[in-house]
Amino acid sequence: xxxxxxxxxxxxxxxxxxxxxxxxxxxxxxxxxxxxxxxxxxxxxxxxxxxxxxxxxxxxxxxxxxxxxxxxxxxxxxxxxxxxxxxxxxxxxxxxxxxxxxxxxxxxxxxxxxxxxxxxxxxxxxxxxxxxxxxxxxxxxxxxxxxxxxxxxxxxxxxxxxxxxxxxxxxxxxxxxxxxxxxxxxxxxxxxxxxxxxxxxxxxxxxxxxxxxxxxxxxxxxxxxxxxxxxxxxxxxxxxxxxxxxxxxxxxxxxxxxxxxxxxxxxxxxxxxxxxxxxxxxxxxxxxxxxxxxxxxxxxxxxxxxxxxxxxxxxxxxxxxxxxxxxxxxxxxxxxxxxxxxxxxxxxxxxxxxxxxxxxxxxxxxxxxxxxxxxxxxxxxxxxxxxxxxxxxxxxxxxxxxxxxxxxxxxxxxxxxxxxxxxxxxxxxxxxxxxxxxxxxxxxxxxxxxxxxxxxxxxxxxxxxxxxxxxxxxxxxxxx
Length: 480
Known about the structure:
Layout (H helix, E strand, L loop, with lengths): L6 H4 L10 E7 L5 H11 L7 E7 L4 E7 L2 H4 L2 H6 L4 E7 L14 E5 L2 E11 L2 H6 L12 H11 L5 H9 L4 E8 L4 E5 L8 E4 L5 E4 L2 H6 L3 E5 L5 E5 L2 E5 L9 E2 L1 H6 L5 E2 L2 E2 H15 L6 E4 L5 H11 L7 E3 L12 H5 L6 E3 L1 H4 L3 E6 L8 H10 L4 E6 L21 H4 L2 H8 L3 E4 L2 H8 L6 E2 L1 H4 L22
Parallel strand pairs: 14-23, 17-20, 20-21, 21-22
Antiparallel strand pairs: 1-4, 1-10, 2-3, 2-4, 5-6, 6-7, 7-8, 8-12, 9-10, 9-11, 12-13, 15-16, 18-19
């Protein structure tokens, strides 16, 4: 989807979280890797809808196709038929740095002295100016993304092989980055030393390996999930098999906690544990911390549904499907007119009046960012006849912006950074409001505080972020 029309922004403006990207890497001789990458990217479409691309190597040359839009609108049988080879790198993008234009679509293709390199990046570099300043003076940057700077830094870095070059840049790059890249003959995958963004890998039954942002992509094309890459780990796959290079001095882990709350698909695994079960437990924990005297429980589709089920199970209140989501409203490039825009969430959700009328309703959602969507949902439920509306949120209050790859909001825009819980309750028009506690979140996901990045909840960021954010993200009109 081009940035010119983002359904989340239009219905209403900007109260959603957006993640950077989804990446895929496949090394599988004898397989149709372009087709596998295509379906794997389909499984990761939720991570970005602006642009997508696939690059394939046959061992001698790399062919790449990338465009703006959704996976289904970019690739067809004719295009996939031209992408022949046994190594694939795929990417689906939501921009956090760089404009929404095809020049910033990935994978990026770099011509290096030692051969061609293609790269797909998920994350956000925070010292991009410093890295750009270390590039050769003759370097020409054609895109406007941190990913291009990262790619050029790697191909220009000193080292006897690509792993050494990657290690050199990892010693200088700050921020979040999970990357898959390839030469004509080998596939590489690596994560930043803090592991902010996810990256896992698996194995095909008939031979070959696959890397992806989430395990659901592996399952889609029949690859067996093996594990997450460790923070700072670099893996190379070539004709001699799989080669693992571990960091000499591991850093404290800092996986973004919103992977559990919102970004990852519920059927994905993180560290071998189910996202769905973690969200179910968030709902249970939320019911323990913030019970409500009510008749029914419902959730805002889709990511909050497991939390709603968990709240229902723990509270004993029946779960109802109070809102039906129009799943295709976010697939249109046509902006609604002013009258339709005023209807806000009514374009995206339709209430089931028969389940809500006269009821005291607990509504579960995964987050409140700017506080623009929640009051419209509360009003929609009241208009449907709900007698009381009790809002429960499966994340703690977001009180700081993110500088590591999540398009969230500024400090001034974050409602929880500027108002108390009671003031927010009044603003959204709810009868009561409760947020999951930080300790409750960590208990639900079974992770220690030192293993997660909680910067947007605490203002304490991992050491990979050491100062103000990079230059503000460019905003442009609809890309061609």
